[in-house]
Every structure is written in C-alpha cells, then in structure tokens.
Amino acid sequence: MILTRVFPEPGEPIDTDEGEARELLSGLYEPGAARWVRLNLITSVDGSAVGSDGTSESLSNRADRKILGVIRRHSQVVLVGASSVRAEGYQLPRTVPLAVVTSSGDLAGHRISPTLDPGRLIVLCPASAESTVRESLGELTARVVTVPDTDARLDATAIIDTLASLGFDRIVCEGGPALAAQLLDAGLVHELCLSTSPRIGGGSMRMLGDRAIAEKPLALHQLVVDDAGGVYARWFLGQR
Length: 240
Ligand SMILES: NC(=O)c1ccc[n+]([C@@H]2O[C@H](COP(=O)([O-])OP(=O)(O)OC[C@H]3O[C@@H](n4cnc5c(N)ncnc54)[C@H](OP(=O)(O)O)[C@@H]3O)[C@@H](O)[C@H]2O)c1
What we know:
The chain has 240 residues and is α/β, with parallel strands linked by helices. The chain is built from 6 helices and 13 strands. The protein has 2 domains: 36-47 and 56-75 and 170-240, Dihydrofolate Reductase, subunit A (3-Layer(aba) Sandwich); 80-167, no CATH class. The termini are far apart. Helices cover 22% and strands 27% of the residues. The chain is globular, with a radius of gyration of 17 Å. Helix 1 crosses helix 2 (62-73). A hairpin with a 4-residue loop joins strand 12 (219-226) and strand 13 (231-236). An 11-stranded mixed β-sheet has the order 2-1-12-13-11-3-10-4-5-6-7, with helices on both faces. The chain binds NADP nicotinamide-adenine-dinucleotide phosphate. NADP nicotinamide-adenine-dinucleotide phosphate (NAP) is lined by residues 41-43, 49-50, 54-56, 81-84, 87-88, 101-104, 106, 153-154, 174-179, 182, 205, 209.
C-alpha cells in the first residue's frame, strides 16, 4: 500500500512493502517530547471503535498496522485495557512490553502466547485482584504491579505515574475506548494518533465509549492518507 503525507506539507509516497518504509514512517512519527503519552486508535467514519466483527481488527488494514508498528517502536510500553485483551487477539509487541490494566484481575480469554520473559507482560491491578490475575493467566508469566485503588478502580494519573516509575516515559495506549477516555479526561494525553477507516456503519461502539469528556481543543500536527482511503491523523493536545 502507498502512504502519502498531505499535511503540513505534501510528502513523497511511501510504499509499505519497501524495506525503507519503516524508517521513512518513523521520521513522520517522532514523539513530541521525551515524556510523551499517545493514544493510538482507529475509528470508522461514523465514529465506531469496532467493525462488523465487534473488534477493531476489521477496521484496520496493512497501512494502519505498519503505522501501529512504527508508533510502538517509538514507545517504551504499550498500554491496553483488559477488555481489549479479552476481545482482541492481543500478543506481546515485538519491541516493547505490554501493560494491561484490570480491576477484576480476570484476564481469562486472553490469547497471549506464553513467554519466558516475565518483564514483557505487565499487569496493573488493585492489590485485591493480584491472585485472580495469576490464576487467570495460567502458565503465562507476568510482572504484576499493584496500584492504589478506590473500590478496585485505578486512578488514571496513578496508572501513568506507575508506568513512569517503572521507567516508561513514552507510552502508547491502544485502547480500548473506556481506558482511552479516562486518560484523555484526566489530561494525561499529549497526542491522539487516529486512523479513520474508509467505511460507515457495521459497528456501534463509540470511539471513546459512553463517558462524557470535557471539551478539549486539538491541533492537527500531521495528516497521512493511504491509497485505499484510510486517513491517519496526528492530533496534539495541551499537556498536564
Ligand atoms: N478502535 C480501536 O482503536 C480499539 C482499540 C482497542 C479496543 N477496541 C475495541 O474496544 C472494545 C474494548 O474496549 P472497552 O472500552 O470495552 O474496554 P477497555 O478499555 O479495553 O478495557 C476496559 C477494562 O479495562 C480495565 N480498566 C479500565 N480502566 C480501569 C481503571 N481505571 N482501573 C482498573 N481497571 C480498569 C477494566 O478491566 P476488568 O474488566 O478486568 O476489571 C475494564 O473493564 C473491544 O470491542 C475492542 O475490540 C477498539
């Protein structure tokens, strides 16, 4: 597939199948600062976070996955909500650890392949859920990090601060809508990387879930399009 930057200045087309594509795209996705929290989400044109199969996988394409890989490489950790891990075929990213947030601790249904490196999978949970995490992971090893909670819910700021205390300053949260909305509402997000899939209808989960979020202005930092109608925006937010 061909990706072309159209804003702020038109760029040379990038063929995602060419060896140099990753390096060229990497230059388009440099984080804005050493401490940088990104959301990387995909939506249909009518704002659904899922396609007709009930996951975001059916909204994605090769160009979107290429950009996702580039954003992961610029990050020190990938952060996701437990429902996404249960719903989608989440695997450990090739380059960075995966941090999963859970209140219940019940990660049964995950499809993460067993790994020998316990540092690759990190689970953030309230102390009350630690044993459930270990039971539901079965043979999968993980670094379980307990975070202070209120009625088993972790504060969004505490989630990001805990990751920072583990040495992760460049974080990409890949959803789902519930977790992304909390980070956004708490003013913790520096950038929204938003892919728009060229389709309408088919899914019915709002991109940021049902939570009302305080209005925030966005600045368009970059716009890239693919040759199948996919649109890839980098939106910058004010910082905390
Ligand atoms: N369009 C996209 O870019 C995109 C990306 C990812 C996922 N998705 C789709 O989105 C859906 C899942 O999203 P979702 O919004 O329902 O869920 P989610 O954000 O993936 O996960 C929600 C779960 O994460 C845990 N969690 C979230 N905030 C927490 C907090 N403050 N403290 C403790 N635990 C917390 C809880 O886990 P427990 O339930 O274990 O307590 C909660 O039920 C799936 O259908 C998936 O396919 C779309």
